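Hi R.,

As promised, here are both runs. First protein below:
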Amino acid sequence: MKGRFFSEGIFREHFRQLKIVGIIGVVLYTLFGVFSSVGMNISETRVTDIDYNGSFNTVYAEKIDSIYLCTVQLLIPLIFVPLLMLVAFHFLTKRNSSDFYHALPVKREAAYSGILAAVFAWAFIITVLPLIVMWAVCLPLKAVDFAFVEALKAMLNTLVSCLFIMGVTALGINISGTLFTNIISSGIVLVLPRFIIVMCWLISCATVANSVMDYHVIRLMLYGNPITKLVYILGSYNANYFTRYFTSGLLPGAVEGLAYMSAGCLFFKLRKSESASMSSINKGVQSIIRHVLALVFSTIASVFLLERVWYGYSDELEIFMAVLFYVLAIVVYFLYELVTTRKWRSVAKSARQLPFFVGMTVAIFVIMSAISINGNNYRMNAENAEYIKVIGISGFWSDEYFLDADDFPVEIKDTELKNRIAETYNRDADGMNPNFSVGSVMVAVKENGVTRKRYVFLNEECMESLLGEIYSAAGIDISEKLPEIKGGDARYRFYLYWNLEEPCALTVEDMRRLYGSLRTEVLESENPAGFFFEVRDQKVCMLGLVTYDGYGELEMPISIKMPKTFGLLQEIINEHNETGSFAGMYEYVFDRTVYGAMVNGRIYFGSDEYNESKYYSASFDTDEDGESLRQIYDILKKYEPDGDVSGKNVIIESTSWYYGEYRASFGVYNLSDDDMSELWSIFEKNYD
């Protein structure tokens, strides 16, 4: 059993001791893989797609992809690895077994590495063997697609997660001496660093106006380690994030796990047999844990106190919350000692260190105050700045305007635009900007050798100019972002969804015609960079373009500010629409006294004065709703339903009528000022 860095004897013995937990994990995951694969095949789930000609084809069967595998395998590092670690190091919690292992003629680091190797071996088997079985089961099944690349990614992500959790639990176990404190200390090692990061984020956002700490916190979540990355991505409900950041965080996660293992090895070598069944290996470690936990709560209290002292908030809530969390900090300080040692005498002794805890709390408050004062007193000076770089635009703008993370940072070169960015930020910092601006932009400003990152909320005019600068600096060609699609090209497919009730079902050819018109109108505009930005507020539907493999999705608004494309949309709807308009429905329903019909619809107010959507749903056979609808129809029937979308007092209506052969109506009306005001009053009265 002798060895300097690794003991084969310890490895074999602990591999044998861990067989019950390991075999249970293998059996459970193997059965899950077999039953899930067979179940998918039995259900014969098919994914269909629409080709260019509008016919439905089966593209592939049910796919076992990366997000499915990683979600299922998440329980391996979170449940089975901690169980394996607790069983493997259980001898450290019993005095007799601890004496036995301390007496073995083997180096401490060799025994430690042998134990960890046994745990990782079982984690590897639990992860890999079920995947092999699942592949073997899926091989003859035509309805299930088992992707090797996805399986390898999931396996790598799971194994690195296991390595990370092994390091966390190794450190937690080796700084404590009972099963209860093993679990508590491991949880502290796992959660506390992330909790402190989030707390610093909240503190920064609370104390420094327009702080960009949320940007850095998200990067830590995505690139920090596989566990936090996976939890963040699953919580975002966005599979694209999962695919994009799948292998990110593996190296940092492995490095952090190995760092925890190294620290655990140090404590394993330092601990003595007498520390078995003790709360921690020594009083110093116990004191550190107690102080860190209490300081978390006292720091939160200091945030509320900071807001009250420096910002002069008169709300008594800040004082109440500050007192509450200071009290909780003291409670946690003593409660941890009582729960882990179960001795009132130890609690009394820990009171001697309260002055140190109070001093640390005061020091943290002073540091936070300095950060707050320095951060909030800062004002941009565009003339003295070496540069102003845009390092990010909120996801909404990026998705809609052909921008992604690879296009940043972009240095702003236009002097006037730099001054406007600085003026906008300074007004906001002075409390003079109500923040009703439309664009959230993250900038980095270097002044006097110091780089500061801040959010700036820009108005529409400034945002349009900024987009042009970014497009120019990043070399973005709009014509390449909007590919020319010729007839018969099956690499792309379209979809359309409405802000209004869908007036009719458009064919693939209809949507191709709309895309061609939209592309031409965008490229012919004076400012293609800001075109979609300008039209976004008054869009009535979104035209989606997706590549055949499902990637490269692009959503483009069709707006009343796009007269050519919207005019084509009106023509296409009229080709499909039997009813034609509200006025046509009015004539049929009220003149023929049809009762019991249900109308569901929306009217869009497209004028400058009434720029918002109003909704209504009413039945013709009720007196109140019937009267209101009759008033609306009496107004609309005066006008032609194919009005000019760029004209005055634009009303766009869309209704689904679930009765008989008449399914929907659609119309664009140009109302007089009096009728517009009357229609608006009807909606304010009945449908708010």
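And here is the second one, sequence first, then its structure tokens:
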Amino acid sequence: MINKLQKHPSVTAFGAGWLAVTALPPCYVWPVLFLSFPILIWLIDRAQGFGQAFRRGYSFGFAYFAFGLLWVNNALLLDARLFGWLVPITFLAAGVFFGLFVAFPAALSHCFKTLPARYLSFAALWVIFEWLRSFVLTGFPWNLLGSVLTFSDSLIQTASLGGTYLLSLLLLLAAAAPIFLFSARRPWNMAVGLGLPVLIFALSEGWGYWRLQNYPYAPSDITIRLVQPAIPQTLKWNRAMLEDNLAAHIKMSQLPEQDKANVVIWSETAFPYALEFDDYHRDMLRYAVPPKGWLITGGIGHNEYEDGRYDSSNSLFVVDDHGQIAARYDKSHLVPFGEYVPLREWLPRWIRPVANAVGTFKAGDGPKVITVDGLPAFGGLVCYEIIFPAEIVDSQNRPQWLVNITNDGWYGDSAGPHQHLAATRLRAVEEGLAIARVSGTGISALISPTGVVIGQIPLNQKGILDLKLPKLSSIPALYAQTGNSLILGLCIFLLLLAALFPFLRKNSSSKLCPASYAK
């Protein structure tokens, strides 16, 4: 078996990366990581030079991201006539580009000369490159490795200390540790291979249990109503359906006990007209607003920039019970090739019909706090802004809770909406803030400051949900104060430790023994 793996190392790495995808939400087959990562580090350790280690890491990363992001193609298939031909291109592009974020950690870790040093350095470099992925070319920190742990409310509590990046680091150290069971059979190797995963999970579980017990959900007197109309994306912007879609939102908002809600929340672009200018349709909104309460809805905002011309923004609006706009937040982290096209004017003519089908939005000025009477001060987030660790609140003026409006209807019944919800839960733990998440036809939920889902409307189901905002809508979280400095400092420490390892333990430089594998 080992000989076969050695004959085709890139194929083996590709298979290990493909296997690792099943650990992600919503599958959560997390034990596979205890096979895929030892295989990858074994291949790195057996590589002959930087280039070979790079190729093996690239094969793993290509499969991990190409198949892990396969759900993105559902958006293209909504208009298969215009965009269908892009499916194989986006599949390859995801693997080709994001695979580099595994290839470089693999190659750089090979520069260290012992197996323990490569193990430590690879884990640290993986996390550093996850962090780089959050801002390189506007950033896309989707499916951080730590999201695998969102199957457990207790295990994700460690994110309150060092963010999801700390979860990634600890999970990788635990999952890759069995590599030492196949090296020279010494007590130290056996202790690390068996004991380290148990120790990491035990400490994480213990911390999580303590935190959940000390910060349980306790309802306040603020009632929020989440409205999920489950309108298919193919009908959402159908001109003949706009009136009906708006009426459906209003009717659901008016369902029994509306007067007991303090705020009704709709999803991203739920209001399909120009809210600032369309007095007729804006006046209709007052029927959706609870008495003396508020409506939070997504819509297209407009900003005058010259000579009476306007540019558009993907916005969140707060509307009072008279149908008047009380506050607005413009999405600041736009989706490339979804809400704008980078270098649009430089694209070749043959691609312009596709580019012109993509929106051109103006970015907002970053996180802001919205304050209205009767509600705790909150921060607004539109769609995938929620996936960026340490970037979702104004650190100088922190809100008491967050509202994330989104529209996962683009991705249908796929892994995407589940992974989006998992990212939202992790942001709640990191910031210690409750999050109300409303999707047009995805998964709407209220999430406690410890990342626990208090209640949700399932994927693609129509419904409303009345829930009490947690009494403690914000709780202490070290990560909210330190950001990424703690975890990056820990990674640098591990790299220094890896570099010094041969000097600290002269007898720890044993290589993997082929004979031990053969057995």
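A quick note on the second one: The CA atoms of residues 64 and 89 lie 16 Å apart. Let me know what you think.

Best,
J.
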